[in-house]
UniProtKB/TrEMBL annotation:
It comes from Paenisporosarcina cavernae. The lineage of its organism: Bacteria, Bacillati, Bacillota, Bacilli, Bacillales. One of its GO terms (cellular component) is plasma membrane. It comes from the Bacteria. This is ATP-binding cassette domain-containing protein. Belongs to the ABC transporter superfamily. One of its GO terms (molecular function) is ATP hydrolysis activity. Pfam families: ABC_tran. PROSITE patterns: ABC_TRANSPORTER_1, ABC_TRANSPORTER_2. Keywords: ATP-binding, Cell membrane, Membrane, Nucleotide-binding, Translocase, Transport. SUPFAM superfamilies: P-loop containing nucleoside triphosphate hydrolases.
Length: 310
């Protein structure tokens, strides 16, 4: 496979401004054939705007992007033939049945795939003749993905596909996305769920305030911390960062709103040293927690705040 065919999507210095606000600020990345590529970040990071530029819904203010060699501005008609899109808010014709709306969407394209196997793959067989207004949230999301697949595209864009779904519906959708990969589809998805990105994505681009601040596999991003574990706790009194950094095994310290995060490669030694320090200073530590390093810790180290706080 050549480099040109391996890269299904190529983005270079892509920008989108709204007045003085830079929604997407010069990001660059590529997506390989057959991979699940994730854009991870808080609401307002620029993930959805990036997707909307790639699929032709918004015109970039700078930079370039190509999909299978087609420029997303100059060659938009060709781009639309090779992509499928599930947007964060998809409005469906509520009075149509599942089968009717799939037939309608199929009629928009020169070619389409057989609908019955597609309905089966989306676990909607029992709902084939049900009106859309009767479907659950998870079923509507699976239908939206079916509509994106009806013309057998090479690349699927999924914008926050599991937002608002219950845990079981999320897991069901994860299985469907992984099966798309097994069928050779290239998938780009946006999410603000760390577990979702870690389970699904071959590579993850972390976005914050319009910038791409990290890009690697989940394990690769976590290894960049150079820390195997973290220790977190609250303290009512302010503790100097330098004092915590002097504790045994501590590699880095992050502080936010009275919560302290210690990154360490020697969890036991750091815990003993921390408790001894707190006892000597008569400092009460509350909500003390330890865990192996995660994507949340990566985001904290890169931005100084939690993804959930953003």
């Amino acid at each position: 496979m050549t480099e040109s065919t391996e890269r299904m999507i190529h983005v270079q210095d892509l920008r989108k401004n709204y007045g003085n606000f830079q929604a997407v600020d010069g990001i660059s990345f590529h997506v390989k054939q057959g991979e699940i590529f994730g854009l991870l970040g808080p609401n307002g990071a620029g993930k959805s705007t990036t997707i909307e530029m790639l699929v032709g819904l918004r015109k970039p203010d700078g930079g370039t992007a190509t999909i299978r060699g087609f420029d997303v501005v100059r060659d938009l008609h060709q781009v639309k033939e090779v992509i499928g899109i599930q947007l964060q808010s998809t409005t469906l014709f509520e009075l149509l049945t599942v089968k009717e709306i799939l037939e309608l969407y199929a009629s928009f394209y020169k070619k389409s795939i057989p609908l019955e196997p597609l309905i089966d793959d989306m676990l909607l067989t029992e709902k084939t003749n049900s009106r859309i207004k009767t479907l659950s949230g998870g079923q509507k999301q699976r239908l939206a993905i079916a509509l994106a697949l009806v013309h057998d595209p090479f690349i699927i864009f999924l914008d926050e596909p599991t937002t608002g779904l219950d845990p079981q519906a999320r897991r069901t959708l994860w299985d469907i996305i992984l099966k798309l990969k097994d069928k050779g589809k290239t998938t780009v998805l946006t999410t603000h769920y760390m577990d979702e990105a870690q389970v699904l994505c071959d590579r993850i681009a972390i976005m914050d305030q319009g910038k791409l601040i990290g890009l690697n596999t989940a394990n690769g991003l976590i290894k960049q911390l150079n820390a195997d574990s973290t220790v977190e706790f609250f303290a009512k009194v302010e503790i100097a960062t330098a004092e915590l950094e002097s504790l045994n095994g501590v590699l880095q310290v992050e502080t936010r709103k009275g919560r302290y995060t210690l990154f360490t490669n020697d969890l036991q030694n750091t815990l003993v040293s921390l408790l001894q320090f707190a006892n000597e200073r008569d400092i009460t530590l509350s909500d003390l927690q330890t865990h192996t390093a995660t994507l949340e810790d990566v985001f904290i180290q890169m931005t100084g705040r939690s993804l959930r706080e953003s």
